[in-house]
Amino acid sequence: MVVHVPSTVDEAVGQLAADPASTVLAGGTDLMVEVNDGHRRPSGSVIVVNRIAELRSWRRDPQHASVTIGAAVSYREMAEGPLAAMVPALAQAARTVGSPQIRNAGTLGGNLGTCSPAGDGLPVLSALDAVVDVASAAGRRSVPINDFMVGVKQTSLRPGELIVSVTVPVIHGWQGYAKVGVRNAMVIAVASACVVLDPSRSSVAVALGSVAPTIVRCPDAEHHLATSLDWSTLAATSADLDRFATLVSAASRPISDHRSSAEYRRHAVGVLARRLVRRASSVDEAA
Known about the structure:
Elements: E1 3-4, H1 9-18, E2 23-25, H2 31-36, E3 46-48, H3 53-56, E4 58-61, E5 66-70, H4 75-79, H5 81-86, H6 88-95, H7 100-105, H8 108-114, H9 121-127, E6 131-136, E7 139-144, H10 145-148, E8 149-151, E9 154-155, E10 162-169, E11 174-180, E12 191-198, E13 203-209, E14 216-217, H11 219-228, H12 238-251, H13 262-280
């Protein structure tokens, strides 16, 4: 097996163009599990991208109120420091991923490339309407996150394209992420939710993970909460929150599998979303 270790994006996409069957490797926390389990065998060369400086860095753009996060930035980097302050829901999601060793190695680009509906970072990116920046030998393009994810472990990446970064708005509102699993740590999400409340636009965004073939938004629930929320306190009545939770559950399309039933997943995302909104208004959620 031939392994390439490029130092620039141009070098990486040149190698992808020369060998379209190449496998891109960043942290390896998804790929190596599949290889070790015998579910996948790289058919071409392996391109290791975690030494490309552009992919390992992030930058804030105050003029456009956004932050661009390189595809090889690790969960640990997203979970603490300046990035955590700018995108707190992404930091919350990053802290739920695996063990410290996994968080040190796993990357945001890997989460996107795998595109599992249980990916912890993906509901946050969806709720924030992030944009995925990709490159190929032909140039670069930007893809809205909800167009990038097209199915179970399926993306709209074209042959020869490499995920370079993700650009996320920095909002001055409230955002939060929560998930449930079969245990309290080291767990794949049985159901997950991200809620973003933006008072500057009086807008609500809700995205759900592990309850459909890919991440889903909840437009009916978003509209209901946006029109019933007290934007000065981010509070809503119990009746409005109950209706919001019902609409969130209705937007899900879960399946039953070895980790959970569809009925539980449908119920869980409504509870999670309701609790996140209650958390935003600093009101303790009843048991």
